[in-house]
Write a structure and sequence with these properties.
By secondary structure, the chain is an alpha/beta fold. It has helices spanning about 10-20, 25-40, 50-55, 60-70, 75-85, 170-185, 195-200, 200-210; strands at about 100-110, 120, 125-140, 145-155, 190-195, 215, 225-230, 235-240. It folds into three domains: about 5-70, no CATH class; about 95-215, Nucleotidyltransferase, domain 5; about 220-265, no CATH class. The protein is about 30% helix and about 20% strand. A hairpin with a 4-residue loop joins strand 2 and strand 3 (about 125-140). The relative contact order is 0.08. This is Transposase IS701-like DDE domain-containing protein.
Amino acid sequence: MKETTPAAMPPCFDRWCRRFDNCFKNEAQKNGFRQYLGGLLGESERKNLTQIANNAVGVVYNRLHHFLTESPWSDRQVNECRLQVMNQCRQTQIPRGFSLIVDDSGHRKSGNLTAGVGRQYLGEIGKTDNGIVAVTTHLYDGKKSVPLDIEIYQPASSLAEGKEDKEFKKKPEIAIDLIDRSLTRGYRPKIVLIDAGYGNNTNFLKALEERKLKYLGSAEKVFRWWQGVGCGVWGVGFYSFSGGQLPNFQGKSPGILPPITPRLGTF
């Protein structure tokens, strides 16, 4: 039974969709955007193309499939427009002093024809399985959470040339790209929140510090880092410690601990 029709959508739906019309080149694309978005907002439990097409009058599966897979429009342009629209409303505008949360989300998926699908660690189930992983950023200001960007991680096994493929990027590299998008928009976070998957990556932490971004996260117990320590008249320098605990010199000489220069990418 057909549950929805394009004409049944409230006028506010079309008014909202018009704000994205500049992202599309023709009426077919604009209609495809409305049909797909309407399908996502519908009552169907499964939000795949087959179900969306079956549940809506006037929606043809092949046309909707072409819109999502072949039609030349930019998902990044649509996302930029979404953020601009949200920023025009007081309730959803991007606030100052927000926390930027970096995370990745993995989900099981059968088959291997979808880009990014392969055997990899999936946080949803806590083990390695066939699935897809996306790196995400979103902000939190103490009241609301706003999704910012998302990028599919493509494991080396899913690419023709493996790690040598030009499309291959590690998750921390993707995360830095997403952070740079926020900075380019003028969205500068008060702090970046990360889990151990990123907190253990020294190149990622170095990139944050190069951008003068404060960060808070977790790291493995054996993670080694460098900390500047002032020791009065006995010397000021960087000392290597592990386990997340600094020694307490209590005003005494550090003795045999020599001051050293931190290595590249290590903190």
